């Protein structure tokens, strides 16, 4: 939005401040509208409808989607968790078990007190000493209460550290490797740091046995309470929809992202003739309708224009998902549309495009090139690194230097240091830590 700067020199400082304040308010309202995702936009307009008797808001229904593809792995969709009124919290789940399995004794009352200190991840956030100070119970009773808590489902609940959490899960699993619990208890740091020769020597076992323990530990959960309801989740409602009709690609706005706001002109004209106070009120409400209508139109136009630029740049990916994304920066889109980068950022954050092969956040289509001369995106380079490592001989993992050479042969010229940075960014350890012994 262009802001007029032309003021005559003889105007007062106060006049300038008033003019700037009014313009800033309007600008902030337009920015606010653009920042909203579809669900937030609908909630905002419903509130405005309640506050303004002259407007009516019609929300178009749109089939929501929970199939979301992330920018770290665009071909692996996952289901968005959906909370319902009947979803049980971890606290309620534990409470039910206590009531069903324990008699009403002082020990059970201690366990119930401990439940109040179990966080959403399942960890116990109070020490034995604090419980003793709080309740006056003896140390043995508190230890027994903690033990009873840790015997509840899910395995690992009531732990005070990651190590203890993994030990509890191992203890409750009859199929855990023979040495797993002992290694977790006595050599946890060595296992984490892959000091496997040291562990094998200490327990007189083979490196392959240590490998088996390590692989098993990786199947355990560090957050035993994570699967329980503790926060609200909702479906994703896309702003844009990509489809292919009769072989032709189409990019359209979803109905849900285009709510219709109507103004009651007849009611407005009637109230104009009541008195000056009512006239001023309805005039203000008319102005509110005008900026809502204008801001909605600007929001729709901006998101669609940005979506079209994204599609033009990434058309190969949209038509064939085996293709990698090309480098694309916010400023590239901003320059093409003659808008500020911050406007593009607001237009892509929290906005989604639904496609036949998944739903993507618009900002996931932006990525730096690996270098100034390259047309290969950083994401594409990361995918290539991941593929190289996936195909390596795990008994002889490939070094970053060899990955660098392999990439250059594929036309991706990046340094060994950049290889290491990208590898770490996608959560892959160094070659020494990828080595397997089985």
From TrEMBL:
GO biological process, any: DNA-templated transcription initiation
Pfam (any one): Sigma54_DBD
Keyword list, A-Z: DNA-binding, DNA-directed RNA polymerase, Nucleotidyltransferase, Sigma factor, Transcription, Transcription regulation, Transferase
PROSITE patterns from the UniProt entry: SIGMA54_1 (PS00717), SIGMA54_2 (PS00718), SIGMA54_3 (PS50044)
Domain (RNA polymerase sigma factor 54 DNA-binding): residue spans on this chain: 280-436
Signal peptide (from-to): none
DNA-binding listed as a keyword: yes
GO MF annotation list: DNA binding; DNA-binding transcription activator activity; nucleotidyltransferase activity; sigma factor activity
Family: Belongs to the sigma-54 factor family.
Identification of the protein by name: RNA polymerase, sigma 54 subunit, RpoN/SigL
Organism in which the protein naturally occurs: Pediococcus pentosaceus (strain ATCC 25745 / CCUG 21536 / LMG 10740 / 183-1w)
């Amino acid at each position: 939005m262009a802001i007029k700067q032309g003021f005559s020199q003889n105007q007062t400082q106060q006049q300038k401040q008033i003019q700037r304040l009014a313009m800033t308010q309007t600008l902030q309202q337009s920015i606010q509208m653009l920042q909203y995702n579809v669900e937030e936009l609908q909630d905002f307009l419903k509130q405005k409808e309640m506050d303004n008797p002259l407007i009516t808001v019609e929300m178009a229904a749109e089939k929501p989607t929970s199939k979301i593809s992330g920018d770290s792995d665009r071909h692996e969709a996952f289901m968005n968790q959906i909370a319902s009124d009947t979803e049980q919290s971890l606290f309620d789940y534990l409470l039910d078990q206590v009531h069903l399995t324990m008699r009403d004794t002082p020990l059970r009352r201690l366990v119930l007190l401990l439940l109040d200190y179990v966080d959403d991840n399942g960890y116990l956030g109070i020490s034995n000493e604090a419980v003793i100070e709080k309740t006056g119970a003896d140390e043995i009773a508190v230890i027994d209460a903690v033990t009873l808590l840790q015997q509840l489902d899910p395995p690992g609940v009531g732990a005070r550290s990651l190590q203890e959490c993994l030990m509890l899960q191992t203890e409750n699993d009859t199929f855990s490797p023979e040495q797993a619990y002992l290694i977790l208890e006595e050599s946890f740091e060595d296992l984490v740091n892959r000091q496997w020769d040291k562990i094998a020597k200490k327990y007189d076992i083979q490196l392959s046995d240590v490998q088996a323990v390590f692989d098993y530990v990786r199947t355990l959960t560090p957050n035993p309470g994570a699967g329980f309801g503790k926060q609200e989740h909702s479906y994703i409602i896309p702003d844009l929809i990509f489809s292919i009709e009769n072989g032709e690609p189409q990019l359209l706005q979803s109905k849900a992202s285009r709510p219709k706001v109507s103004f009651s002109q007849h009611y407005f004209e009637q109230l104009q003739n009541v008195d000056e106070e009512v006239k001023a009120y309805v005039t203000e409400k008319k102005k509110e309708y005008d900026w809502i209508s204008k801001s909605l139109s600007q929001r729709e136009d901006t998101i669609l224009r940005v979506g079209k630029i994204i599609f033009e740049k990434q058309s190969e990916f949209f038509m064939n998902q085996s293709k990698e994304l090309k480098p694309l920066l916010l400023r590239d889109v901003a320059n093409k549309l003659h808008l500020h980068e911050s406007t593009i950022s607001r237009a892509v954050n929290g906005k989604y495009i639904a496609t036949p092969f998944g739903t993507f956040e618009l900002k996931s289509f932006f990525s730096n090139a690996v270098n100034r001369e390259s047309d290969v995106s950083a994401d594409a380079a990361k995918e290539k690194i991941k593929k190289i490592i996936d195909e390596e001989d795990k008994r002889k993992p490939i070094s970053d230097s060899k990955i660098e050479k392999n990439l250059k042969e594929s036309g991706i010229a990046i340094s060994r240091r950049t290889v290491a940075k990208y590898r770490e960014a996608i959560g892959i350890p160094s070659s020494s830590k990828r080595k397997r012994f089985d």
